[in-house]
Amino acid sequence: MQKIDKTQIFSTVYKKWEEGCGPNHPSYNSSNGKYYYDVVMNLFHCQKGVCAYSEISLCDDDYYQFELWNNGKYSSQKPEFSGALDHFDPNLKPTQGWLWSNLFMVSKDINDKHKREKAVDYILKPDLNDYDPFRLLEYDNQLHVFIANTDLDKVLQQRINDMLEVLGINLSWIKKSRKNHLLILNIKPPLGDFYRFFGNNVFSIECKPSRDDSADRV
Amino acid sequence: MKVSHIYIKDNHQFKDFELDLTYPAGHPKAGKPLDKVCIIGQSGTGKTSLLNKLAKPAEKIYYSEPTTKSDQINNNQITTPLDFNNKNSSFIKYVNSDSDIRFTLFDNGYLVYKNGIESSQSRYSLPIMIDAHTGEKDLGENLQYWKDIIKDIIVFREQEIQKKLEIAELVTTNQELLQAELDKFNEWQKSRPNPLKDLADNYLDKLLSQFHLRVRQSLDFKKTEDIKTIKIETIEGKEVPNNLLSTGTKQIILTTLPLYASKPTKTIILFDEPERSLYPDIQTKIIDFYTSLSTDCQFFFATHSPLIASCFEPWEIIELKFKPDGSVYRELYYDSQKENHVDNYTIDPRYLRWDSILTRIFDLDNDSNEARTRKLMELATLRSKLHKANGKLSVEEKQKLQAQFEKLANLLDWEYDAEN
Q1: Is A150 at the interface with chain B, CB within 8 A?
Q2: Which residue of A141, A150, A170 is in closest CB contact with B381?
Q3: Which of left, alpha, beta for B118 (phi over 0: left; psi -120 to 50: alpha)?
Q4: Model-level pTM greater than 0.80?
Q5: CA-to-CA distance for B275 and B252, rounded, in angstroms?
């Protein structure tokens, strides 16, 4: 789960409105919301087009280029994407349904069927300053699951592993998709590798050297 | 008689619902009605309802000659009652005027055999084993089949006993005629096939052998009732009392009886939940078993079993799904923008693993539950610790960790690559 920088706001009209709402937002109506596409497409820009949690590809980058914003509003009429707008902390949804910092674009099945109203631990909130996937997560190259870095203390590991479950990052269909994605990219991360972002397509791989060596080729 | 097309205008969850039941282009039987159909779908989508609708044409059937393809669908005029003996009648149309349900049927029809539909009382009945004097009420709609089979067996056995008694008498009275009578007896056996042997060898024993059972063929006459029923024995020859037969065994016998008794030809045969009470390995064989017991019939199976579904070609599967408004549609296994051609199918249940059938056809989101996912994470954690153990853990501690890892890997049935 990549670290997400949400400071680059193109949907400034929405952001100004959101800040003006104060502690009590108008009720959240999903896609009927006036600023729905402004939020969704700005999030896709920040998330590089992938699900904030599972990194399953959800939107082609053609649809979230800066040029598509006009006077602080997303201007493309029919952006194509899959996924759903997720309220990271479900407790904030009733009163602050449009809070920018609590919103992420995620796989629809994770949002609708898996995460739903489960309680969250902010230790894996991907836009927080102190969230560092390279320090917190490890990837198993055979089981294709993310786990807490086993060098961390046990309590922290437990919290991280609990949150990996809440966010659906190791659901079987996501594992399968991740495994296939790596096969297509011809990448086999070494055992004990830290988290890395494998990107939305072959040309945007960002790899941080693992502790042992660089990525193996298979 | 086979159904090649169904159209339901508006009947409960079926709204403007249409099914093409022919083989796709590129298939050796392209354009001909499907030999077997597997109906799957969530409870309430109408699997059994479809079977029931299919059962009706046999009760009240009419035919008309088609003029155009659209006429096959749109002409709802009832013409002449079906003449089963009319060899020229190649097209038969059934119209249910109440709900506007239309079936396009081919070839002359005989009978429709219903199993398990609207007769839950008889689903687990014991037709073959129940004494005819006490068990008639449990036989349900299979009673006539049972009576016919038993009558045939009793007649055969009476003749067999009579002839054997005659031979036995000659042993003590007339040795000269004995050989001649024995030769006549052998000739009689050849000319009069033993119905029990036919039932055993060509029908029931094909599957009963999977349960280590078979039909007792030897004459076992201690009391009158012995020749009035069919006995089941172990492969070693030990009789299994009827009340000790498993539900699955009874199910096999119950469903095989009508096929044996009626020897169906050109018949529509309907089965609701053929997997009932059967272990997975038998489920993978049951479709071939049933279809082998008939000639040129069309089978409709409604099932919840992925193992049953794996026995069908993709175009033979009718997967019913709900639309947002509660009506149902058929999920296609090829891109609807493309031609219905065998090469355009993207799912084929015959080639999938069992777990893939569950996820890709039966729409299970995950191939396992969340408990397994958590255990896989535990396994990955142990693997990581082992990987990092050098210099950190003693030999004993590392061995202990390795044992934990192997035990959990075994529990998860996960084959790990020790080289990685």
Answers
A1: yes
A2: A150
A3: left
A4: no
A5: 10
Contact across the interface for A164 and B377, Cβ inside 8 Å: yes
A165 touches chain B (CB under 8 A): yes
CATH entry, B2-111+264-361, from 3.40.50, 1.10.150, 2.60.40, 1.10.10: 3.40.50
Q: Taking CB atoms and an 8 Å cutoff, what residues of chain B touch A166?
A: none
CB contacts of B393 in chain A (<8 Å) are none
CA distance A19 to chain B (A): 37
Q: Nearest Cα to B254, choosing from B204, B301, B307?
A: B204
Domain segments of chain A as ranges: 12-119, 133-217
ipTM of this predicted complex?
0.83
Report d(CA A22, CA B389) in Å as an integer: 52
Give, for all 420 residues of chain B, the pLDDT tens digit.
678 888 888 888 999 899 999 999 999 999 999 999 999 999 999 998 888 777 665 444 433 333 344 333 333 333 333 333 333 333 344 444 444 555 555 443 333 444 443 332 222 222 222 222 233 444 555 667 777 888 888 888 888 888 888 888 888 788 778 888 899 999 998 998 888 899 999 999 999 999 999 999 887 777 777 777 888 999 999 999 878 888 888 888 877 877 888 777 777 788 888 888 899 999 999 999 989 988 888 888 999 999 999 999 999 999 999 998 999 999 999 988 899 999 999 999 999 999 889 988 998 877 788 899 999 999 999 999 999 988 888 999 999 999 999 999 999 999 877 665
Q: Does A193 touch chain B (CB under 8 A)?
A: no
Partner-chain contact A173 B359, CB within 8 Å: yes
Interface contact flag, B381 A147, Cβ < 8 Å: yes
Structural tokens at position B208: 């009963």
Give Cα B303 distance to the centre of its chain.
Answer: 9
Report residue B264 as tokens: 């169906």
